Write a sequence for this structure.
């Protein structure tokens, strides 16, 4: 009997065994599919075995210009839960269909979406074939974050950027924090040289101003938001949708700078993959990663499951040779699944579970216990999350309802200490629960502009207990938010207009918070999309991610607390944009996006020094400053040539300023500062791919960060100061080659190698020794890194 003890959350995952089991199951599921001829023979056998008394559809999907079959194309019946992907020969089967008029939609990256209407009849199986036109630019992506419903990205009234699997693969990104930066207005930086806290920045506002979602659910608490950009594996991610600007009208508190919605993978057909990567940096230091994923689908397509997992070992890195880490040591294991059952053609039950365990440590004397060192920040996370949702469509495709519940439980053991303190061990327990329901109605009244009405009720609960005895710190917080959102979208090919609001009752705020939103899109033709939007947002006076991290400063630590009279922070955001498309030929396609944004923050949260406690630890207090204004432009350009390659680049030009000068330190020689810290006025990125030939590709990618103002606390230096950082350009490349072994088409191999941060662009003025300010860190996340990876897919 095969043991399933690895599902015990306290057991370290045996990833090689899991991969072996997965590969074995996948081979059994695929049978003897060792060639395209055999796979097509199996397809024909399935067609012949279709129940003749039912309504069935089968066919193939071809590239219109080349005549080649397209594998992994999504084939779905619009308005139902019925769907599949084409097999390795480009063929598909949709069985047990409801009788009547149906619309079949075919989508695949790199091609224009195609829809065909059919009439499904009992006792009849019909062949429906598709020929898709190639696209060099991805125009027909489906997104859900703009309105909480599936919408074509090009037709949304709100700009939604998408980071998909191709971006992660072309840039060899192992974590979300690495791949998410390749879009306008988004940066990720480390805020601590000891434990490596990754900080998401959208349009110049730090991570606490952004709402991170998992499948549109606000399940990530303040604690999980500290490290989740590095903990979540890319093997679970189908795509990441990013909305810049206020999103509180749909997603509640903290969605001020933007919304990051992580959409996990769904199982569509029997397949599996394994990916292993070796990164080399410093003097022989390594970052070793191994991940797997597999989809398994029943023969009647009503049951399916996607399994994934992985492990990662990363060495600590000491840039200046002082014996203290500037990048922490890391070990991460993860495992999870997403299972789907379709009880009927119009309903779907989805269950998801994930487990992550992580150890990270920074400081010095890594071979000793943390209390025998000068500085150590050590954390062990044990994270379990689960969700269940039920989706139901009406047979006439006019009504849709979804009910869901999700939860995440985190246990964190920590040590934040200096000078060998024995009592600086801590423990944190964090429980987040989200439950809600959503209803949508589509109207096509003849005399009215078609519209979609969406409403929902959502309850979010978070309970956190964080205790570190040696600092006399104990945080016990229980937050409850009940939100009701209403939205109506009038839409046509030329015009979209969205009007909505969300009403929240937060137990930390008196009264009801009302956050309205309005968005409009006007497209006079298919080459122009003009958009404008307004949104209101808020942040509640509660514990945030930075409060749950204790940084080392001057041989002691810094502690954050809220002022007793801290008030909510409110924002008003406006954006206008022009989205321009031009095809210079069938093969040469371009897109230019120009977006202006303006965010006005009232009673903005800010940290000020409040002296030191009896042990010499630095005390920081969160207060309400007068306010701030963040404004600027995002510009993104894309050039794509079919069968040749593409170039994508984006820049952000902005200003982040307090309305009144902010006094952040008691150092008398420093004047109050109007400029917001860690917010460059100019930054950008680029990605480029070139197809050398069909299976061989080169990718170039890079990030530019302009100068910015950074705080530097006293310790290694004599007194607090402000530093204007230099600009950084972090560039890399990757060569990748895909191939099959002779006489076998069941397994596809992909070999990749390259260099990240070719020019070794890195901070030069790091603090030295035990008195260092761990928060004085900026610039690229990693030094020059060589990598090689091997991936294989089984279909």
């Amino acid at each position: 009997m095969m043991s399933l003890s690895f599902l015990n959350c306290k057991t370290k995952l045996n990833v090689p065994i899991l991969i072996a089991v997965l590969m074995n199951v996948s081979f059994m599921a695929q049978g003897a599919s060792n060639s395209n001829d055999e796979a097509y023979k199996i397809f024909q056998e399935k067609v012949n075995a279709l129940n003749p008394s039912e309504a069935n559809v089968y066919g193939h999907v071809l590239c219109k210009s080349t005549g080649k079959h397209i594998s992994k194309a999504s084939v779905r019946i619009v308005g139902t839960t019925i769907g599949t992907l084409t097999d390795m020969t480009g063929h598909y089967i949709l069985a047990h269909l409801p009788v009547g008029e149906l619309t079949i939609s075919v989508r695949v990256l790199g091609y224009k979406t195609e829809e065909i209407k059919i009439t499904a009849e009992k006792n009849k199986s019909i062949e429906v074939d598709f020929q898709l036109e190639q696209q060099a630019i991805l125009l027909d992506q489906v997104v859900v974050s703009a309105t909480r419903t599936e919408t074509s990205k090009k037709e949304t009234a709100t700009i939604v950027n998408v980071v998909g699997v191709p971006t992660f693969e072309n840039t060899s990104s192992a974590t979300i924090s690495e791949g998410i930066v390749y879009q306008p207005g988004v940066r990720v930086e480390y805020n601590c040289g000891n434990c490596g806290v990754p900080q998401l920045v959208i349009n110049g506002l730090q991570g606490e101003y952004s709402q991170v979602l998992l499948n549109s659910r606000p399940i990530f608490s303040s604690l999980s938001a500290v490290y989740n950009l590095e903990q979540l594996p890319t093997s679970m991610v189908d795509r990441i949708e990013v909305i810049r600007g206020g999103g509180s009208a749909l997603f509640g508190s903290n969605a001020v700078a933007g919304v990051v919605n992580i959409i996990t993978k769904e199982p569509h057909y029997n397949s599996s993959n394994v990916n292993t990567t070796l990164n080399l940096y410093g003097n022989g230091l390594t970052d070793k990663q191994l991940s797997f994923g597999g989809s398994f689908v029943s023969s009647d397509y009503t049951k399916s499951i996607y399994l994934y997992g992985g492990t990662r070992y990363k060495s600590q890195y000491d840039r200046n040779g002082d014996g203290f880490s500037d990048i922490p040591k890391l070990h991460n294991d993860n495992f999870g699944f997403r299972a789907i059952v379709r009880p009927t053609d119009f309903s779907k039950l989805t269950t998801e579970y994930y487990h992550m365990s992580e150890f990270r440590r920074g400081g010095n004397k890594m071979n000793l216990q943390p209390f025998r060192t000068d500085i150590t920040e050590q954390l062990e996370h044990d994270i379990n999350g689960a969700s269940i949702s039920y989706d139901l469509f009406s047979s006439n495709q006019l009504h849709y309802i979804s009910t869901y519940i999700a939860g995440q439980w985190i246990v964190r053991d920590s040590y934040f200490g200096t000078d060998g303190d024995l009592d600086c061990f801590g423990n944190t327990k964090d429980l987040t629960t989200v439950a809600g329901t959503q209803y949508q109605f589509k109207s096509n009244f003849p005399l009215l502009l078609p519209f979609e009405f969406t409403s929902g009720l959502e309850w979010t609960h978070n309970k956190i207990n964080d205790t570190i005895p040696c600092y006399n710190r104990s945080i016990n917080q229980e937050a409850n938010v009940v939100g009701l959102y209403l939205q109506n979208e009038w839409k046509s090919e030329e015009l979209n207009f969205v009007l909505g609001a969300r009403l929240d009752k937060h137990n930390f705020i008196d009264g009801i918070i009302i956050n309205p939103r309005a968005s409009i899109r006007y497209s006079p033709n298919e080459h122009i999309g003009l958009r404008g939007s307004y949104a209101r947002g808020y942040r509640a006076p509660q514990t945030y991610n930075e409060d749950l991290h204790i940084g080392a400063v001057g041989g002691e630590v810094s502690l954050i607390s809220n002022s007793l009279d801290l008030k909510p922070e409110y924002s008003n955001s406006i954006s206008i944009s022009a989205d321009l498309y031009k095809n210079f030929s069938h093969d040469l396609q371009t897109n230019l996006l120009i977006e202006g944004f303006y965010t006005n923050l009232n009673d903005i949260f800010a940290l000020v020094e409040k002296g030191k406690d009896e042990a010499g630890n630095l005390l920081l207090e969160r207060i309400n400053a007068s306010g701030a204004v963040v404004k600027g432009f995002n510009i993104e350009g894309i050039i794509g040539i079919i069968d040749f390659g593409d170039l994508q680049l984006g820049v952000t030009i902005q200003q982040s300023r307090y309305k009144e000068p902010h006094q952040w330190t008691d150092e008398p020689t420093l004047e109050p500062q109007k400029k917001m810290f860690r917010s460059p006025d100019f930054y950008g990125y680029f990605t480029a791919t070139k197809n050398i030939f069909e299976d061989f590709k080169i990718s170039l990618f890079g990030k530019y960060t302009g100068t910015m103002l950074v705080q530097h606390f006293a310790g290694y230096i004599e007194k607090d100061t402000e530093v204007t950082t230099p600009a950084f350009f972090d560039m890399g490349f990757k060569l990748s080659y895909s191939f099959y072994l002779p006489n076998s088409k069941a397994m596809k191999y992909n070999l990749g190698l390259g260099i990240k941060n070719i020019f070794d662009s890195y901070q030069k003025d790091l603090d030295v020794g035990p008195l260092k300010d761990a928060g004085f860190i900026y610039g690229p996340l990693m030094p020059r890194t060589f990598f090689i990876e091997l991936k294989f897919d089984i279909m």
Notes: DSSP finds six helices and 45 strands in the chain. The longest strand covers residues 399-418. Confidence is low (pLDDT under 50) at residues 1-13, 15-34. The radius of gyration is 26 Å.
